[in-house]
Amino acid sequence: MLGLGGMILSVEIVRGFKQEIREKIRGFSGDLQIVKFDLNNSYENSPFSADSNFVKKARANPMISRVMPFATKPGIIKANNEIEGVVLKGVDKSYDWSFFKNNMVAGNTLDFTDSVESKKQIMISQLTANRLKLKVGDKILMYFVQEPLRRRPFTIRGIYTTSIDDVDKAYVIGDLSLISRLNNWNPDEIGGYEIKINDFDRLSEANEAVDNILPAKLKSYTIIDNYPTIFEWMNLLDGNTKVVLVLMIIVAVINMISALLIMILERTAMIGILKAMGANNWTIQKVFLYNAFYMIGLGLLLGNIFGVGLGLLQYQTHFFKLDQASYYMNFIPIQFSWMDILLLNTGTFLICLLVMTGPSTLVTKITPVKAIRFK
Asked: Residue 77 has what pLDDT?
């Protein structure tokens, strides 16, 4: 029971971790980013003219759900006698705000109804707001280091949190047209495209499809390319899960073998009597295997109640908490996969039943005379 329950919880938690973290990164930066093909590795994008033909072809692909222009520009926020280096990420009215709406701490997303007012709005992370002691509605100055030095006043429109330090420490959200104006770009120039796909499992396939329609001057990067450290860490979780599963199986097998051996030793006299009455070894073995089958089935039933039940409790209540600074979230996430639960049950049952055949052969070593005398 404990072994299977532990395995179910391990798989549920790891799936939940990977899903939550992946969706946070996807929500912020998309699945693919299209930028100019050059040697620029800075936070400030190299501009290129928006390509409506590429956008049309990309949107026609059923794997792709959104294509959104963006640009980034580093700057320094000054507020309350404090300064903070950040990267302004500029977006336009076509941007998908669903992620930010689900992760807003206070305020609202940018309002592009008035193109003049939208250039004065900014969204910052909860981490940046805490460091600079800011709240929604506060006025700040942001400096852009260029020739000549530019500074712009902003009003904080909203405060969000992704719980991912790489994002929350670095980025603030503003109007794409402001960045274009600061950089003296042409009206049709942008820093890149963010692309969201419908199925993350088809990321490589979608990236290949985008590469095939990209103009020669552009290059695509996947979310895994942009955040390699986080995805490598998530891959390590899979390795940890395999170790836990193996250990749990070993413990369950040892317990089942011990239980079966004890049953055989306790029933030594019965085995002798059955043999004296003409029962063969396999007939007697089946008696103990049927009993082991009952024990395994009961353990599987209780293990499922324990593992799935505790998982459902955590899924509904988020009762067990985590340190958000270390784990990117403040609760233990759970994601159910009934196929994983079915495979765990099937695998555990077959392995335990298979290893039972070994100890059950002890029946063949017991002779009727010694067994009856043992009683």
From this structure: 93
